[in-house]
Amino acid sequence: MSVIPLRRLDGPCPFGECDGSGFVFDDEANTAFNCRCRPQRVALAKARHLSAVIPRRYADVSFDRPPVTEIDAQVVAATRRFADSVDPQLDAGRGLWFMGPVGTGKTTLAMLVSKAALRAGRSVAIYSLPRLLNEIRDTHRAERSHVELLDRLSSVDLLHIDDVGAERTTDWVLEELYSIVNGRYEDQRSIIITTNILDREALCEQITERTVSRLTEMCDELPLLGHDRRMG
């Protein structure tokens, strides 16, 4: 398990404007108003029960060494630009969509963006789509709030979902995926996704045209071609 050092927002205000509570107090007027740090504090609080752990396999990945240096240079450069400006990218609700065959480095690049967001003190949730759907199923079995989980997934600064389109398609899967994507679309929240499907028409058949349409508007598309590097 990898622990990423965070610019924590459960301590002093990063802007030096409040006492760490997320509120700025005006003693003369006897009023309080939201500090600039409050939205991030709220997002972090909601994200505490979501998965924000970089898997061990990706804990030490870096832009400056293999396997990243062996991936398409243009795609790596675009990913690095996004990671280097992660705060304004997340503030604008922008995301990345890595697409291509298995073993071409999609997840590795997506993890680099998630690591950059965590280091910037932003709230991040990292899931494969099958695992995320299992968590949603568990809320039904345990009678926990399904709406509360979707709210947390909508509120986190960055939602990273791997293997979109890999799950067996059912009406339930399609509706849950659409609810997650649409929630972030409406709130202008960033999303990072990876898909093994390059053809847009095929992807529309797999996860519906309305979901693909929203992802297209939210994300810059970064296609990765080539052979499966895991096979040597």
Structure characterization notes:
- By secondary structure, this protein is of the alpha/beta class.
- The chain has nine helices and seven strands; from the N terminus they run E-E-H-H-H-E-H-E-H-H-E-H-E-H-H-E.
- It has helices at 38-47, 73-84, 86-91, 106-119, 129-141, 146-155, 171-187, 200-207, 209-218, and strands at 23-26, 31-34, 95-99, 124-128, 158-162, 190-195, 219-223.
- It has a five-stranded parallel beta sheet with strand order 4-5-6-3-7, sandwiched between helices.
- A hairpin with a 4-residue loop joins strand 1 and strand 2.
- The protein is globular.
- Residues 1-9 have low confidence and may be disordered.
Topology:
Layout: E1 23-26, E2 31-34, H1 38-47, H2 73-84, H3 86-91, E3 95-99, H4 106-119, E4 124-128, H5 129-141, H6 146-155, E5 158-162, H7 171-187, E6 190-195, H8 200-207, H9 209-218, E7 219-223
Helix pairs in contact: 1-6, 2-4, 6-7, 7-9, 8-9
Give structural attributes.
232 residues; alpha/beta; 9 helices; globular; disordered N terminus
- Give the DSSP E fraction (strand runs of 2 or more residues): 5-15%
Biggest sheet strand line-up = 4-5-6-3-7
Largest sheet, strands/sense/barrel = 5 strands, parallel
Rg calc: 19 Å
State the distance separating the first and last CA atoms: 26 Å
Helix content: 40-55%
The pLDDT mean sits at: 82
SSE arrangement, N to C: EEHHHEHEHHEHEHHE
| Low-confidence region ranges | 1-9
Total helix count? 9
- Total E-strand runs: 7
Outline type: globular
- What structural class is derived from the secondary structure elements? alpha/beta
